[in-house]
Amino acid sequence: MDPVYNPYAPGAGQRPPELAGRDQEMTAFDVVLERVARGRPERSLVLTGLRGVGKTVLLNSLRSSAVRRGWGTGKLEARPEAALRRPLAAALHLAVRELSVRNKEESDEVLGVVKAFALRSTERGTALRDRWQPGIDVPAATGRADSGDIEIDLVELFTDVAGLAAGAGRGVVVCIDEMQDLMPADVSALCAACHELSQQGLPLVVAGAGLPHVPAVLSAQKSYSERLFRYLRIDRLDREEADRALRTPAREEGADFAEEALDALYAATDGYPYFVQAYGKAAWDVAPSSPITADDVAVAAPQAEAELAVGFFGSRYERATPAEREYMRAMADLGRQNGDEAVPTSSVADHLGRKPQSLSPARDALLKKGLVYSAERGQIAFTVPHFGRYLRAYAGD
């Protein structure tokens, strides 16, 4: 098979040639946009799931759906210990520009508010030459979104941007990836702003994505967050959807898979979209001709596993300290019996012969690095599917 025509895309955030199994989420978002456009009350959406299930790809697709409607859009990725002001200001700057409001004076007025919001990330008294500038060619507004209180400022900012969109007969979608990494004060402000927008019926929607514990992160700051957002759990593909993700792009290139090959691929990938792309790519490259057979998959599997061990699993494992690796290997040992589902933190301590309190620093560091998450109180699980399997096979040293 010619590798030049290999259709599979196992890259971080890269859209696969066939976005299988996500029709329901796309439809749900289209309903949200249509209801908001008609002035009807609706909640923003948050996609949750493990790494490698395609949350970022789906988030980008939701954004594209809004663009097709003529809405203004912007996207940012939250980062641990990084404040929200600058990336959010950049996202809303883009959204306002995309709206292409005919009344330039009104548009510039809102951009001035965006600039004022952004500049409050610079400490007062900083020399002019050292101040960060947001690249907005209008004067910063005064007395609007510049109080320094992120909750007050974000409510004012969202209100003004949404008001501009409403006046143009359109709306705005703000896409936030890795929502679990938002700082507590920023989470609180985001919830407050979304609450205010819903009360006023303004057309600004937040579309977020993050790890499975995002609902707990949001509710920890605002108890009413569960009523502000609709959470959609993004999981692995079922057999039919996984087959479609492989077969549709292959057939567009004049190739196909034998049924036995599809059996083997689903057994290897468990339907996780990233793995489907990785194994599909490897099987295409080694197959001498179409249809791709189970024997081709058997030959390709070690290559796919080796690439995943380096780029998908290994890069994350290398970020961990020795103490953190010890903790994860204990989780992997315990997960051998339960399919790498969540395990009790007390069991990890017992397995290592340690007191639970002594392991808190390692566990907390792993949580901050996004390698594990707390499925529920007293439980811990990997954020990456098959990570326990990887640790047992490659990281036993």
What would your notes on this structure say?
The structure is a single chain. The chain has 16 helices and eight strands. The chain is α/β, with parallel strands linked by helices. The chain has three domains: 23-233, P-loop containing nucleotide triphosphate hydrolases (Rossmann fold, 3-Layer(aba) Sandwich), CATH 3.40.50.300; 247-316, Helicase, Ruva Protein, domain 3, CATH 1.10.8; 321-394, Arc Repressor Mutant, subunit A. The chain has a five-stranded parallel β-sheet with strand order 2-3-4-1-5. A three-stranded antiparallel β-sheet has the order 6-8-7. Strand 3 (172-177), helix 6 (184-200) and strand 4 form a beta-alpha-beta unit.
Protein topology:
Blueprint: H1 23-37, E1 44-48, H2 55-68, E2 72-77, H3 85-99, H4 104-119, H5 150-167, E3 172-177, H6 184-200, E4 204-210, H7 214-221, H8 225-228, E5 229-233, H9 239-252, H10 259-269, H11 273-286, H12 294-317, H13 322-335, E6 343-344, H14 345-352, H15 360-368, E7 372-373, E8 379-382, H16 387-394
Parallel strand pairs: 1-4, 1-5, 2-3, 3-4
Antiparallel strand pairs: 6-8, 7-8
SSE class: alpha/beta
- Which residue ranges are poorly predicted, with pLDDT under 50 across at least 5 consecutive positions? 125-130
Q: Helical region count?
A: 16
Which strand-content bin applies to the residues?
Answer: 5-15%
**Numbering strands along the chain, what is their spatial order in the largest sheet?**
2-3-4-1-5
- Average of pLDDT: 92
Q: Give the helix proportion (percent range).
A: 40-55%
CATH class of the largest domain: Alpha Beta
CATH superfamily of the largest domain: P-loop containing nucleotide triphosphate hydrolases
**Gross geometry:** globular
Terminal-residue CA separation: 38 Å
Main sheet makeup? 5 strands, parallel
- Secondary structure: number of strands: 8
